[in-house]
Write a structure and sequence with these properties.
Layout: E1 4-7, H1 16-30, H2 40-59, H3 65-74, H4 85-99, H5 109-116, E2 121-126, H6 130-139, E3 148-151, H7 152-155, H8 162-171, E4 179-183, H9 186-196, E5 199-203, E6 219-221, H10 227-230
Parallel strand pairs: 1-2, 1-4, 2-3, 4-5, 5-6
Helix pairs in contact: 1-4, 2-3, 3-4, 8-9
């Protein structure tokens, strides 16, 4: 019997893509990057490709947090290469301050959490950075429906490593066989849950094909609203 829900935050509940796009647009305008990249949408697309690649490395402990931050700004923005690491980190702090104010959620996120928290203990399990994750949850209206947030920075290890799932169960007094992981990342959320023997639901709004292996999660959903009919 499932009693505990561990739910990813970014791109599962909080609309990371659109919120980050608007946050970086503010930095782009404020710092005058139009001079170097006059087409913001093209600039954003290039940034996003680099960012996603670096986050994949970060999830698998191939780079640390500060390497991710420095590279995601320097690599797609060569005009920043003359800046010191600290100056790059200052730009990142500006960007994160912007993201902490954004409140766009994935469709149905608040309504579904309001429903789920009546019947389950609901936890956020996220690889996102500590300095912004709490603000995202509070300002977007999700906080009343969350029993606790478990962040990879607190655990000292990222999803999909099974150690963070053990940590999450330990600090919430949850049994693996009574818990379920819900998330959009096949690598971090679904395979991470599989590694520890936890059931999962893959939130797959883009209709991505199943990776070429034999594992299949308990459910695959395209809309969060589907959780009402499953749980």
């Amino acid at each position: 019997m499932i009693k505990n829900l561990f739910i990813d935050l970014d791109d599962t509940l909080w609309d990371t893509y659109h919120n980050n796009k608007e946050s970086l647009r503010q930095v782009y305008t404020q710092l005058g990057w139009q001079t170097f990249a006059p087409d913001y949408d093209a600039f954003w697309d290039n940034y996003w490709i680099h960012n996603e690649t670096l986050w994949a490395l970060y999830r698998h402990d191939q780079i640390d947090k500060y390497t991710l931050i420095l590279r995601r700004l320097r690599e797609p923005m060569p005009w920043l290469n003359s800046l010191s690491d600290e100056e790059i980190l200052d730009i990142n702090r500006l960007f994160l301050a912007n993201t902490a104010t954004k409140t766009q959620l994935v469709d149905g996120a608040c309504e579904v959490l309001e429903y789920l928290h009546r019947y389950y203990r609901v936890y956020i399990l996220s690889n996102g950075f500590r300095e912004v994750q709490y603000a995202k949850v509070e300002r977007s209206g999700l906080l009343p429906y969350i029993h606790r947030m478990i962040l990879s920075e607190d655990a000292g290890i990222n999803k999909p490593n099974k150690a963070i799932f053990r940590y999450a169960c330990s600090c919430t007094n949850s049994r693996v066989n009574e818990s379920l992981m819900i998330g959009d990342s096949w690598a971090a959320d679904i395979m991470g849950a599989k590694n520890i023997g936890m059931s999962s639901i893959w939130f797959n709004p883009s209709g991505l094909p199943l990776p070429e292996d034999t594992y299949r999660p308990g459910h695959i959903i395209a809309r969060l609203e589907e959780l009402r009919h499953i749980l």
